[in-house]
Amino acid sequence: MDKVFCKNLKEARKSCSLTQKQVAEKLGVVESCYANWEQGGTEPGIEMLRKLSAIFNVTLDDLING
What we know:
Layout: H1 3-15, H2 20-27, H3 31-39, H4 46-56, H5 60-65
Helix pairs in contact: 2-3
């Protein structure tokens, strides 16, 4: 997993003042699934990336590349 993506994901979540649990609920996944994305254990699919960018109000490019 790309460390830049993990860092961007965490920063985007924090800038929206959301917990991992809150984001997971918005996405319809369990908290551990979302936490794994931030920690680099697994990576989200394209549909989840789209949802994440909408939740955090950032572009996919910002989320992936910073």
